[in-house]
Amino acid sequence: MNNYTPMIKQYLEIKEKNRDSILFFRLGDFYEMFFEDAIIASKELEIVLTQRDCGGGEKCPMCGVPYHVSDVYISKLVAKGYKVAICEQLEDPRKAKGLVKRDIIRIVTPGTIIDDSVSEKGDNNYLMSIYIDEKNIGISYCDVLEGIINFTKLRFSNINDVRKNIENEISRINPSEIVINENKIIHNEIIENLSASNNLLFTIVDKLSIEDSIAIIQKKLNIDVEKTDYKEKSYIGAIASILNYIYIYQEERLQHLNNINFYEVDKFLNIDSHTIVNLEIQKNLFTGNKKGSLFDVLNKTNTSMGSRLLHNFLEMPLMEKNKILERQLIVEKIFENKKLQELLTSSLKDIYDLDRIIGKLSYGRANGRDLIALKLSIEKIPTIIKDLKDANDTILVKLAKDIDSLEDIYKLINESIVDEPPLTITEGNLIKIGFNSELDNIRNNKVIGKQKLIEYEKNEKEKNSIKNLKIVFNKKLGYFIDVTKGNLKNVPDYYIRKQTLTNSERFTTEELENIQNLILSSENEIFDKEYEIFNNIRDIILQNVERVKDTSNILSYLDVFNSLAKVAYSNDYVKPTINNIGIIDIVGGRHPVVEQSIGRSNFISNNVNIGSGFNNIQIITGPNMSGKSTYLRQVAILVIMAQIGSFVPANSANISIVDKIFTRIGASDNLYKGESTFMVEMNEVSNIITNATKDSLLILDEVGRGTSTFDGLSIAWAIIEHISTKIKAKTLFATHYHELTELENKLDNVINLQVQIEEYKNEIIFLRKIIKGKTDKSYGIEVARLAGLPKSLTDRAKTILKNIESKNEDSNLNIFENIIEEAQMDIEDVKRDEFIESLTKVDINSLSPIEALTLLDEFIEKAKDL
Q: Going from the N-terminus, what domains does the chain have, and what CATH number goes with each?
């Protein structure tokens, strides 16, 4: 390092303190990257990798981006999971003595990025903090532009509890970055696995003491922790850790970040990580996109705030009946008023993201266009208030009265900010004429200077007989007199030469310098004054931040309620009755996502009745592809919809509040943990058995199929017995083990259901209706045929099946010996079947005489070999 140049040494010293970040090092008009950072950035950003002399005759890799477009490149890196440290010049290079002072002014990470490319997506961008102490896990999370820190506490008894609880919260919250304290319980391997499986960034931070945590919260949030009910070490530590991380290199207090919100996990419907994925609540299971999810069906919101709130509804469905009914009631009022739906939609679609605007103002990153967006949004509020009042409904009128019209803020922005402001806030043209008298006077001086400049140019032309004399301005020379070569003989002595060009000379004069000083000093004063005025306007708005946030909150809820009402109206949903007695009774229920995909007319509805005591556990049999999985998911999804206050796709519905929904659906493995498909299945079932209660809803699909037939059947049998006698939860258990249907006669709370099918000419027709009764055939071979397996193969499977079914179960070995022997003897039969099948496929009417004779000849030759 001794041989490096002073600038490279400075870079390396700063880089050493930020080894986990890509360092954007300011050099003039560029942010440069060196060494390994340059190699990574050039690849990820697809920019040219060059070299730079770094001292001692060595060269180092280098790449860079222009500083004025750096946000675009920073966003790309952060989207790929990198941290970016911004190293800025702290003094004017022209005035610096020696090496320019530089240091980190900001670190941009996936959870703290605040540029427009992120805020315009309409999703929450959560930073999450995990603080683990001896007995509890403290969880806090925050969208840095919204400014509310949500927090809770989770208890644990062993390492598996810790991992499961963290996985569940990660699935529910879906953060982009996690801060976790150093601890002895969650080691690096677990963190790496969680990071890889959830595609998010983990940062390990020092563990804060309770004293330091309290001090941080009191300083950053102005909250006296001792006077609150929240003194638990785990969540105090989680809140302090997230604040510490947000405030790295952020000196000014963020005025919008001023609220903490405690939530109890047990107060909301608990949906574990596997269920969130299996039910495709937020994302499609196969594409990972919102399209094809429950959120996608319900999301007819018109604002980004409403879209994020709907996500929150689905993340945390309610369990308090009265709160569910409160939501239902507002949805119902809008549902019944089609005109109001249209009016609200028209107004809400013109409202910008108020939460994001306030966040950007607080961070000092908002510009004039953000204030105009705020003004245009506020402009729509009186119309929304009027439309709600005109609906002439007590509930909607009360809602209208709770909305602050923010007229004073509208007036302030309308009188101060020009209608089409520039992107920058430091180069003028931002404040309206007449808003500030001091600014108007400075502007007047500039006008006077411009007028003097015009007069001076006119006088110099006439006085010196130089018709093409021009006064020109550029950033390097300022104002100058341009005279062509042919007119140089007329240039007076008082002209001072500034620059010589091929075809002209450039001059200045003492009077021109005075006029220039008047103009430029006025311009600089204007820029400074407009920037000062803009910041004053920003501060006034931020002093009213709670009012804006309250209004944004109400508009968000209104947007979601309007969305749910519109979806219910257009998709023919009904308002469900909500009960606390454990009964789910649905007539004509439909899967909201599937029916959107295949069309309402093509979807077969089904009734559901579970929870009456005798039918708490329902064993469902029927072939694959017949609709069992859709039915299972459908029941769970309708319960979730009911508990967020939504209407549901059905003819009628009476739905009990459930405390937890667990699913065991589909086959998967955990290769990075060395766990097989069956091990994963048993882990999930273990979690269900351990945590389910009598008020839970369990969706179990083909449990036990990952191992041998008799092992799997035994496990499935024991699981149903355990749920029946120990847990008594509402359970839908789909299976191919027909032997399990015998449990209806042995357990008083088990009933059998089956998927109705019809057999016609040795083919099966799926009616996709769930009815009482049991299926004693799996129809697996028929399904295989429908899937396109060759007829010879499926016919052979039928032969094998008949042999197995005809043998005595006590002589299994002989059965399979006979099967093998028979297979060897029947190879010719297989060839014969294939030959006959190829014959049946010939369309004689489409063949020419020559083609028919050729084909006949081929068949004769094949027949000789049979």
A: 6-108 (3.40.1170.10), 116-267 (3.30.420.110), 299-406+544-571 (1.10.1420.10), 437-538 (1.10.1420.10), 577-785 (3.40.50.300), 799-864 (no CATH)
